[in-house]
Amino acid sequence: MKIYALIHGVCGTAEGYSETECYFHKDKASAVKDQSQWLSVYTEAPHDEVIISADRDEFLIVRNDDESDVVILRIVEVNPTWDTGRDADNVIAEWFCWNQMDNDPVYDDAGGKGNYLPTDMGLVQESMEWLGRDSTVDLEMYQEFVAGVYYRSHTFIDADDVAIHCYRLPKFHGGLNTNTKRKEIALSQDVDFNEVHEQHKQFAK
Prior knowledge:
globular
């Protein structure tokens, strides 16, 4: 089953780049309607120009060209594997990954992985590749990222030359409720990673 992700945020690492949002829709018509409503909001305000890429279902709203202030509204087709309505499948999370620096999905046909939607553990593994296995990583940032994988519907990895948003796909076919299974919680910055891991094991039982 295809679903459609509407990306809404600033382009690149301009101010507000950590706040990029993603809205999932069951059909393209709904995504286009949502995109059009956001476009109306931005074009009613002062702006320099609107750049349309019809083949990419994308609008770039240049709010201030001198300050490189550009908003992106992009629809991306997504093909989940584990949204069948079966309870056994419905507890498997899948993640849509957005490269904030490139303004593109992390995984596409050009990258050789096609429409890859990693699971929880797959996302943690991929994050190591993004960062580089021999790189020095801000432990607090990475702890927050991993906690987001297991307890939230959105998580963000932000390091040198890496800025990737990850959004957990909804389960449109019903079955078990992923949000209640995972119990989204706000984790304090000083929470111990081992404690997070132990909490996850308890929720997973």
